[in-house]
Structures are given as structure tokens and as C-alpha cells.
Amino acid sequence: QVQLVESGGGLVQPGGSLRLSCAASRSFFRLYYMAWYRQAPGKQRELVASITSDGTTNYADSVKDRFTISRDNAKNTVALQMDSLKPEDTAVYYCNLRGQITPAQLGDYWGQGTQVTVSS
Fold first, then answer.
1. Which of 8, 11, 96, 114 is most deeply packed, by most CB within 10 A?
2. Rounded to whole angstroms, what are the CA distances from 59 to 2, 37, 48, 50, 118?
3. How many helices and strands (H and E) does the chain possess?
4. Per DSSP, what are the bridge partners of residue 63?
5. Which tens digits make up the pLDDT trace of 85-99?
6. Residues 6 or more apart from 1 whose CB is under 8 A from it?
């Protein structure tokens, strides 16, 4: 199986920055899609940013021009650089990887979540 380990969450003041990282516990035969989602209290989980194997990125309108997603295919890691943070960015952030760990095993994997709190 695959474990995803997230790091980098914490408490930051409005306008500050954080960098989240997510690493897979094993290599993938083929990794198609990597993304960050978030879920605030009382709200549904929402897509924050995604990146495909060819580097195509997609961002939620609320984070465009503030967040940047990046990936390292060789290391099976994905990162989310978050700048100009706002209180409304407060949420638990989850990484998501979709791919094949072997040619016969296609899966959708989630991290355990890391708390990001933006508050003065």
C-alpha cells in the first residue's frame, strides 16, 4: 500500500506564508495526478490546486496568484507554497495522489491531513 506523509502546516499570521509537502512511502510505476484539497469546519472538502504528469496546473479561484503547486516526479512528492495567507484559508489540508504503483494497480491515495490556521 501507499502512505502519504504531509508536513508544513501550522499557525501563521495573515499575510504570511507556509509551505506544505507531501511524500509517498513508495515509488509509483506511473503517477498521473497530484493535488491538494482542504476542508474547513462545517464545509465540504474542496480542491485547492492540482498538477498533472505533464505539469498542467489548476487552482481554485480563491487561491490563484497566492498559492503555487509543484511536484518532483523522481521523488514522488508534491508541495504547495502558500503566500499572502488569509484567515479564510484556515482548514485541514490533504494531499491526493492518483496513479499506478504497478501496471496492474491503479489507486487514489490520501494523506492524513495537516492543519493550517491563519490568525493574528
1. 114
2. 25, 10, 6, 7, 20
3. 0, 11
4. none
5. 999 999 999 999 999
6. none
| Beta-sheet pairing, 57-59 with 114-118 | unpaired
State how far the Cα of 35 lies from the Cα of 49, in Å rounded to an integer: 6
Phi, psi of 25 (to 5 degrees): -80, -10
Torsion region of 113: left, alpha or beta (phi above 0 gives left; psi -120 to 50 gives alpha): left
Residue 98: CA atoms inside 13 Å, Cβ hemisphere, count? 9
Cα separation, 77 vs 75, in Å, equals 5
